[in-house]
Design goal:
About 85% of the residues lie in helices and about 0% in strands. The protein is mostly helical. The chain starts with 8 loop residues before the first helix and ends with a helix. The longest helix has 30 residues. The protein has five helices and no strands. Helix 2 packs antiparallel against helix 4. The chain has one domain: Helix Hairpins, CATH 1.10.287.3610.
């Protein structure tokens, strides 16, 4: 039997909000990325680009946040299984870190593409 309650829109929304609160309270890198999103969004608005370019650039800024949320989930799941050093645990955590790193690379490519087009 799965450890999963029956679907309920309001409960599931509450779970998501609780998850965001927890990540915001406990993940310094998430706070830094959220701060960067706010600062860069203000800069984008002052660049006076078209609506589409502005939207594309702002939407791309959410990729590192999504990557960090996924990375946090991976790290917590691995830590739940074992706190001892294990090469597979390290590989799982490194893969999560790679996701965050690649999300920055995608943001960079999107911004370069938008600004040069």
């Amino acid at each position: 039997m799965l450890n999963k309650p029956k679907y309920n829109l309001f409960k599931n929304t509450n779970y998501a909000i609780e998850g965001l609160k927890d990540i915001f309270q406990n993940e310094k890198s998430f706070k830094m990325q959220l701060s960067a999103l706010v600062i860069l969004t203000i800069i984008i608005i002052f660049l006076n680009l078209s609506y589409v370019k502005t939207a594309i650039m702002i939407i791309s800024l959410f990729l590192p946040l999504l990557g960090e949320i996924t990375n946090s989930a991976i790290e917590r799941a691995v830590d739940l299984v074992t706190l001892e050093h294990h090469h597979l645990a390290k590989k799982a955590k490194d893969a999560g870190a790679a996701l965050v790193f690649m999300s920055y690379f995608v943001v960079f490519l999107v911004w370069i593409s938008v600004l040069l087009y």
